Amino acid sequence: MKMVDEEERREIQSALEAWEKGPVAKTVSRFPERREAFATPSGITVKRLYTPLDVDSLKYNRDLGFPGAYPFTRGVQPTMYRGRLWTMRQYSGFATARETNERFRYLLEQGQTGLSVAFDLPTQIGYDSDHPMARGEVGKVGVAIDSLADMEVLFDSIPLDRVSTSMTINAPAAVLLAMYIAVAEKQGVPMEKLRGTIQNDILKEYVARGTYIFPPQESMRLITDIFKFCSEKMPLWNTISISGYHIREAGSTAVQEVAFTLADGIAYVQAAIDAGLDVDKFASRLSFFFGSHSNFFEEVAKFRAARRLWARIMRERFGAREDRSCRMRFHTQTAGCTLTAQQPENNVVRVTLQALQAVLGGTQSLHTNSRDEALSLPTEESVRIALRTQQIIAFETGVTDTVDPLAGSYFIESLTDEIERRAMEYIKKIDEMGGAPRAIEKGFIQREITQSAYEHQRLVDSGERVVVGVNKFVIEEGHTFDYMRVDPEAERRQIERVRSVRASRDQSAVDDALAALRAAAEGTDNLMPFILDAVRAYATLGEICDVLRGVFGEYRAPDVL
Amino acid sequence: MSPSRKIRVLIAKPGLDGHDRGAKVVARALRDAGMEVIYTGLRQTPEMIVRAAIDESVDVIGLSILSGAHMALFPRVMELLRKEGADDILVIGGGIIPEDDIPELKKHGIAEIFGPGTPLDEIVDYIRKHVKV
To answer: Is the ipTM of this complex over 0.85?
Structure first.
């Protein structure tokens, strides 16, 4: 069913031509447009006007359909925000478990509806806090977790059967998931009731985020072990958050963000199928994570295009039978790299627009950045404003009252098509190289991202791409901000803590558990139960990762400029 | 040394953070400006950075860090350079570095800090002005 019939099409076509030759030509001759040509940051030409002719090939049921049904272009739930709002989930964590537990409880009191744990870099790379490489980094970009003892403090007085928790953890995701399960056990909450997400997306670490430990093949084994374990024991847990956010932050365009993220997704699905899993057994627990950038309509269209493209890939390429296997659920974070250190209050406005895009794009959860994040970690006041931004959108604007309100806009639908088409072209190219892992080994994805980052910076430097307060409307500023600082004593306290945990546990139980883990890693057993045993015995994260380093080796990604 | 030789720069990522967009973009810009640029890759200790700087006979070290560990790691790089008698190397930094920390870093010998929003040409010009080859 076409949007317009043949006769109406001809009428519109001739009226459009008359309009271009008449009023438009006359106006442009007297008042030239601001630019010769307009384009989105992904390079998609933006026309002066969009009409039904631009969505001529669109078939409603095939391409848009209905919310909650294949191909999910209009959203993953039948009623979307009329039923339940997105989860307001601020990424948070610093210093030690005790300080972060306080911040979590503050955020929950302020009306936040889910937790999102930021771990410090030593934790993310599998070092204990007293490791020489951890020096200066303990508790800086997130909370330091060395053992189950820290995790118990982190979730103290937070009932794990009632919150959902997202953990930004990748290379050692299995270890932190095991710690979460063990803390829940102590609270009397069985693992089948736990709701949350581990990021667990190693491929984007190699290209954009950097917290990898093990080589690709061994990392993929850990990931498929988690898929399998959770498909049997944790039906509510999101086993992976396939992340475009960091690819975008590293400099990619919106089209590249969709393409590279979905290419990574294809690699994970293929790996799980190759490991003997049935696609409909695990695919519904895959989740995604995108950024929300500055170009309003391109971003809204991006979310819709990503949903439709993933649905088609799951059905057509992987033969998923169930609709829920084709349903792309995603978290969104406003774009950190668009925050400016100059006139930081302006960031509140940027974040508001970006958050609105995510909501109009149908996100399942949202993190809004704080105004001061180009300067330091956010203060409590800044975090509160960021959370309030979401609450204003949710409760005051009315944009939540109907599903997918921008659908049917000639421009939005045309952009959605174009982003899907261009992303699919990239995915074909990556397929020809042998898939995402091969394309990463060759440096292709890294080069594409770096090239886009460089072009962006050149456009900003030349003034062609305006950043308010940075290359236009600049003022002299004294600095007026209170910085959030992590207590420098936190590192010392944490080091003492991990040492006292090591001194007070049953060492022979730890040794046995680590030996069993080593043997399993050398073989082909699922590693999750062994990691869980080690965690319960208070083996540290560093000790567990060292066992795996010993068997798997350590990886160094190619440095591609 | 011939007067027309290229300025040699080591772009280094001390610490554990993987945010290398800035480091890579600056590296590209310096290369496009005719300098010879060596990029260390991620997760470099101060010891590794100083060793690489001496081995590669660089004129400039550019340190990029976004994790907040700069107060621990930047001064350590300077200390090691002095110990090796290599403190004639110009050391500049960038990343997420609160303004309040800059005077302290300069006291340790970091020549300049270039924060978010710095135009690439400003860094190129600064290096050309401060390095005599």
So the answer is: yes
Residue A23 has phi, psi (to 5 degrees) of -55, -40
This prediction's pTM = 0.95
Share of chain B above pLDDT 90, in %: 89
Query: Residue A374: pLDDT band by 50, 70, 90 thresholds?
Result: confident
Give pLDDT tens digits for A112-139: 888 999 999 999 999 999 999 999 999 9
- Nearest chain B alpha carbon to A471: B117
Q: Which CATH superfamily is domain A65-462 in?
A: Methylmalonyl-CoA mutase (3.20.20.240)
Cα–Cα distance between A430 and A260 in angstroms, integer? Answer: 9
Per-position b or e across A161-188, b if 16+ CB within 10 A of its CB = eebbbbbbbbbbbbbbbbbbbbbbeeee
Residues 380-439 of A with CB under 8 A from B: none
B116 vs A132, A134, A340: nearest CB: A340
Contacts of A206 in chain B (CB under 8 A): none
Does the beta-carbon distance from B42 to A210 stay under 8 Å? yes
CB spacing of B69 vs A133 below 8 angstroms? no
Query: Measured between CB atoms, does B62 come within 8 Å of chain A?
Result: no
The number of folded domains in chain B is 1
Binned at pLDDT 50, 70 and 90, residue A490 comes out as very high
Nearest CB to B24; choose among A339, A453, A556:
A453
Report yes or no: A226 and A270 within 8 Å, Cβ to Cβ.
no
Report A:139-178 residues touching B (Cβ under 8 A). Answer: 140-141
**B98 contacts in A (CB within 8 Å)?**
375-376, 483
Check if B120 contacts A (Cβ < 8 Å).
Answer: yes
Angstrom distance (rounded) from CA B27 to CA B62: 9
Would residue B99 count as lying in a domain? yes
User: Which residues form the domain of B100?
Assistant: 41-123
Can you read off the two tokens belonging to residue A195? 């709701």
For residue B22, is it within any domain?
Answer: no
Confidence at A488, pLDDT banded by 50, 70, 90 = confident
Q: Is B101 within a domain?
A: yes
Q: For A120, which residue in chain B has the nearest alpha carbon?
A: B67
Per-residue buried b or exposed e for B77-86, using 16+ beta carbons within 10 Å of the residue's own CB:
bbebbeeeee
The CATH number of the domain holding residue B67 is 3.40.50.280
Q: Which residues of chain B does A125 touch, with a Cβ-Cβ cutoff of 8 Å?
A: 16, 43
Q: Are A370 and A382 in contact (CB under 8 A)?
A: yes
Preferred mutation among B24, B35, B120 to probe A, highest tally of A CBs within 10 A: B24
Q: Does residue B102 belong to any structural domain of this protein?
A: yes
The average confidence (pLDDT) of chain A is 96
* Sequence spans of domains, chain A: 6-60, 65-462
Subunit contact A249:B21, Cβ cutoff 8 A: yes
Phi and psi angles of residue A292, each rounded to the nearest 5 degrees, phi first: -125, 115
**pLDDT tens string A175-213:** 999 999 999 999 999 999 999 999 999 999 999 999 999
